[in-house]
Amino acid sequence: MSATTASLEPARGWTHRFRANPTSWIGVAIIVAVILAAVFASWIWPLDPLEQSVVDRLMGPSPEHPLGTDSYGRDVLARLLHAARISLLIGVLSIALAMAVGSAIGIAAGYLGGWFDAAVTSLLDVLLSFPTLLLGLMVVAMLGPSIENLVIAIAITELAPFARVARAPTISLKSRDFVEAGRALGFSDLRLVVVHIIPNLLSEVVVVASLWLATAIRTEASLSFIGLGVKPPTPTWGGMIREGFENILDAPWLAVAPGVAIMVTVLGLNLLGDGLRDAIDPKVRRD
After folding, report:
1. Chain-centre distance for alpha carbon 196
2. Residue 100 half-sphere exposure toward CB, CA atoms < 13 A
3. 0.85 cut: is pTM over it?
4. Per the structure, how many domains does the chain have?
5. 175 with 112: CB under 8 angstroms?
6. How far apart are alpha carbons 151 and 96 in whole angstroms?
7. What is the pLDDT of residue 104?
8. How many CB atoms lie within 10 A of CB 238?
9. Of 37-41, 189-193, 237-241, where does mean pLDDT reach its minimum?
């Protein structure tokens, strides 16, 4: 068996286990549906999410407005679909930033070791001591509410998990035979990290990203609910819940609709993340 074939077998194994897990496909179906709804929001329901109508304010569900209207007469379904774009965009960008920066920090700490590793580990412990929402609240309060600042704030709250996940396997991988062989051949540290270490821990980082994306969406919704999210009238799920909270007894659909959207999206991401974790986790492998 060639080295290339041997290196492909683990990937074939976990992809086969992922396909064989029915809950994984439920998660995939939910996430694909949410993404399609966000991308094609204007085609699915062509009403303007920002158009106000005093006459139509606080209308219940009807054929013209399947999810009713809010206190400004805006169509809730149109706002819900367009809010998916903002919530998913903030979640994906923040996770991508946290994954890139956090993984780089973790790999550097694990590969270099010594005082740098000790300093990074101490910093990660400090970050992990703060609740995610509280840390995000502190950062947004300092930077101000905007999409860019929300992405930065949420990314900071999730640096530590990615750094920890990347650090541990790096410590193990740097002493493996194939890395030592590359070092003996004169490969640079950068080449060893990029060619040999990163591909071997990428799957674990992707699993963490799929699971923490749900946390990022919940954090964005929480910050928007307390008024530190995207500024109105731009629709976000958390902002819609906050706007509907004032009329929760008279017009419960205002808060229920975005709440259900968040719940379904988080459920899909958790099912997808669990499926990836079970497929990649060595403890569940059956060779």
Report:
1. 26
2. 6
3. no
4. 1
5. no
6. 10
7. 92
8. 27
9. 189-193
